[in-house]
Amino acid sequence: MSQKTKHGFKRLFNATRFSYQGLQAAFKTEAAFREELILACIMIPLAFWLDVSQIERILMIACVVLVMVMELINSAIEAVVDRIGTEHHELSGKAKDIGSATVMLTMLLTVYVWAEILFL
């Protein structure tokens, strides 16, 4: 049976297993993901500790998680580009740069949201 034709709990089990494998791979091979995970382990509990409204807390945590999501997407883009070939190609560089820009923008968003809530 092909992966596409599996249904129900078997599909859910496989999807969960593949997602866990992806998180493990990112943790093992991506220093930026490990650094962002360390920050998330500090910032998410901090968001619960701070005296902010529920919606502010949700926004603060969502931004932190969004940085990690974008890092995972960026790492996936880089892996695919590297799989295609190691020689320099303008489009490969462009794909990697755009992936990196998504991470930077979400980091800037996180800084803005946290600063707006805590200091402004």
From TrEMBL:
Gene Ontology terms, MF aspect: ATP binding; ATP-dependent diacylglycerol kinase activity; metal ion binding
TM helices/strands, residue ranges: 58-77, 98-115
Function comment: Catalyzes the ATP-dependent phosphorylation of sn-l,2-diacylglycerol (DAG) to phosphatidic acid. Involved in the recycling of diacylglycerol produced as a by-product during membrane-derived oligosaccharide (MDO) biosynthesis.
Residues that bind a divalent metal cation: E30, E78
Reactions catalysed according to its record: a 1,2-diacyl-sn-glycerol + ATP = a 1,2-diacyl-sn-glycero-3-phosphate + ADP + H(+)
GO biological-process terms attached to the record: phosphatidic acid biosynthetic process
Family the UniProt entry places it in: Belongs to the bacterial diacylglycerol kinase family.
Cofactor: Mg(2+)
Biological source species: Vibrio scophthalmi
Cofactor: record remark: Mn(2+), Zn(2+), Cd(2+) and Co(2+) support activity to lesser extents.
Subcellular location: Cell inner membrane
Binding site for substrate: R11, A32, F33, R34, E35, E36, W49, L50, D51, V52, R57, E71, S100
Active site: residue positions: E71
Name recorded for this polypeptide: Diacylglycerol kinase
Binding residues for ATP: R11, E30, E78, E87, H88, H89, K96, D97
